[in-house]
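In practice, a research group might receive sequence data for several interacting partners and want a quick structural hypothesis before committing to experiments. The following worked case mirrors that situation: the sequences arrive first, and a predicted assembly follows.
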Amino acid sequence: MSDERRLMVLRAIVQDYVHTSEPVGSRALVERHHLGVSAATVRNDMALLEEEGLIHAPHTSAGRVPTDAGYRVFVDRLSAIKPLSQGEKRAISQFLEGAVDLDDVVDRTVRLLASLTRQVAVVQYPSLTRSTVRHIELVPLGPRHLMVVLIVNTGRVEQRVIEIEPALSVAEGDAVVSRLRSSINEVASGVPFMAAATRLRALVDTADEADRPVLRTVVSALADALVEEREERVVLAGQSNLARAGSDFPRSIGPILEALEEHVVLLRLLGQLTDEPDLVSVRIGAENPVSGLQSTSLVSMGYGSGVERVASLGVLGPTRMDYPTTMASVRAVARYVSEILDQNSST
Amino acid sequence: MSDERRLMVLRAIVQDYVHTSEPVGSRALVERHHLGVSAATVRNDMALLEEEGLIHAPHTSAGRVPTDAGYRVFVDRLSAIKPLSQGEKRAISQFLEGAVDLDDVVDRTVRLLASLTRQVAVVQYPSLTRSTVRHIELVPLGPRHLMVVLIVNTGRVEQRVIEIEPALSVAEGDAVVSRLRSSINEVASGVPFMAAATRLRALVDTADEADRPVLRTVVSALADALVEEREERVVLAGQSNLARAGSDFPRSIGPILEALEEHVVLLRLLGQLTDEPDLVSVRIGAENPVSGLQSTSLVSMGYGSGVERVASLGVLGPTRMDYPTTMASVRAVARYVSEILDQNSST
DNA sequence: TTCTGGCACTCTCTCGATTCGAGTGCCAAG
DNA sequence: CTTGGCACTCGAATCGAGAGAGTGCCAGAA
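A structural hypothesis for the assembly, expressed as tokens:
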């Protein structure tokens, strides 16, 4: 029995269903795809596919619809990522070139991804876990306040205003601050976050007795910023695309929108990627652990500067989506963003 | 003829309709509200209200529904902002207290507003137009690159990496940078944006001949950041609330979501507030110039530190909304955020 | 004048019955 | 193993009747 053909049939079903969004029957199938067999044969194959749980009939006499498992097989074995046209590639790079800073890169990326795929785009801010400190700046704002600015090699800037005790003297304030600035940068500049945090803590103990109280406050603010979970942010775009595809969702799109507002959950989801680099990951329907997103698929990929993955981006849409093209778009965008970030962080 | 009573009837209609979301008939009206008259009398009043264009019957024999104009009259003349309970106020201030920086304030505000009103919340980032420069920092990143960091009195930080020509010499680089840093801060620190931009440009001409090329680049980057329109950003939350109230929208919620993604348009909308401070502004249905938002109402108010309005925030929902409570929430949140910002910018 | 009760009328919504059609499952023959 | 044929099933669309809610209007009361 032709395993081969059965998979062809599955592929045809997925393609047609994605295209028409209506259950596809045996007759329509043989007409649209020139499988060399008759409708009856296809029906037999369909019965088998249904037994295997790859397709499913909404009711006795309607056509078949792929199940989550069916899409899974399709994605894993029956489709290749469709390469983008030259024009599309150019459009992507042009759109991203113009970004002025990290916020802008992220913003443009998410919009680009949404308009490219006509789905909901999700972009995680480059995470700090692998980042290094580029520079730390201390700015006195008066005798009792100091602004601590942490500049990250990804281009991100993090700042805190701290209150210091005792107050800086007018006479020595500036001198103290520049002393601290240089010793802090000496131990932390160019150092990865985790290491920087421990080194800084060590610095407190070896520092000049007089500087300790202030230094302690500064370091604790920095350590705080270094492990800051808030960094873990996501940006969304294209929510309106959900409404367009509204009929694809069994219940309303409400639960989906709700889930999308739970950024913490989204982050966890994006974090669960298989860690293989340069590989598009697809999570289909109920494979998705988040309630509310069980009728959606998430196509995502890591991106970041250099070889190490820094964060993830992706798109979310109905399980009935055009996987090959969506995957192509996600991959292309992830690569271009990585390039852009590379350029930025090497300057 | 009792003008008075007719307005009472209008108010009752609005209240009932907001409550039940179904057209309200004369019988139900006299039962729920103890107007001292009979249903027939109310019917006569309704006929008049309809002539005036304040209410409208979906079809011959259904109840009446307020028109946009009807809501307008209700908001302007028939309702008072319902004060929040002590507990709600406490909850608001507690929720906002914990914010660590400006991004966090905005983020918390928008979420708070969304969950408080159960509608879509919109918060504009504090605008720079009235802001002053708190400090400008130059950080050398190598011989040919310099990071310019602009710190604003609202707590916002803006940064740019620039390429300089000619390259800084290893020997003199640091000296040049600190010379520039101090002269720049001398003219720009504490100065409002517009003034700072012109002063900086003037500085280029009076500066030491040798420093000019670098200074020119720095100043142009700063001027760029100072007028930067990108500052004009909005943050949204609570989109899922649209789905919940989905039946209130004639067409789907798609167009609304689309409109919400056009941040530029939203900003214009928020900017069109009546400028009276401390006053909640309401734009109802078709009063709203944006296509796609014509079946929604926007309740907004300015906020900001000090007396001057810095930006706006608000909520967007179906025209059929509970105006008194929504207005109360918006006002309360706007006030608290202003307070928070006040505290921050005075440090 | 203004209000009220009564009554005929209109329109939507719901329900059930009927019909139609697409698609299946199965079978017997190629 | 494939194919054509055929009976069967079940949802979707159509139609009509009936119910119900609400109005508009009128004539009489206050």
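Before designing any experiment, note the following. DSSP finds 13 helices and ten strands in chain B. Residues 323-346 of chain B form the longest helix (24 residues).
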